[in-house]
Amino acid sequence: MKKALMIFGGLCATVFLLLVILISFIVYNGRGLDKESKAYADAAIVAIASQWNEKDLTDRASPQLMATVKDPADLDRVVGMWRMLGPLRKYDGSKGDAHIGVFWPSGKTITAVYVARAEFDHGSAMIKLSLIKIDGVWKILGLNVVPDSFPNPQAAKPNI
Fold first, then answer.
1. Segment 119-129, tens digit of pLDDT
2. CATH no. for residue 25?
3. Which one, of 145, 139, 118, lies nearest residue 37 by Cα?
4. What does the angle CA 142 – CA 75 – CA 114 come to, to the nearest 5 degrees?
């Protein structure tokens, strides 16, 4: 019995040590992930919202985001609605952080969520950006733009 308790105690100590190492690893890497994901989020928001160019979004889109776009006309319609806000005029940066999810047996998933306020020619909006890191590269998992009020369509300059 004493030998069994010693073995059990040794296993518990080993598991505890592994958990401490894992948590330390996550915390250490988490700070770096927060910094790089925030930089990516801010650059992506500015690039996309500066002129509401659909290509700026699709170039940064994850395969998961693109899989939700059944008809390219739907994406064009959504970006066209955002375009009514006009070009980006003021952006103060985003707030958020990265998350590491460990799943058995598929491995880890690294995501991030950021929220930002922005002012445009024809109003202001809250922007929520979800990211995922795939093969070491951040990609957009989701983008939601919520105007404070709907802009006047006559105020928006037509795209030629």
1. 999 999 999 99
2. 3.10.450.590
3. 139
4. 20
CB 23 within 8 A of CB 15: no
Say how many domains are in the chain: 1
Q: What is the pTM of this model?
A: 0.75
Range of the domain at 140: 2-147
Q: Does residue 158 belong to any structural domain of this protein?
A: no
Separation CA 61–CA 58 (nearest Å): 5
Judge whether 103 lies within some domain.
yes
Q: Alpha helix locations (H) across 52-92?
A: 54-58, 63-68, 72-83
21 CB-near residues (< 8 Å, 6+ apart): none
Closest CA to 109 of 128, 131, 127, 94: 131
Residue pLDDT, tens place only, 101-116 = 877 777 789 999 999 9
Record the tokens describing residue 84, joined without a space.
């009514």
Q: Is 156 part of any domain? A: no
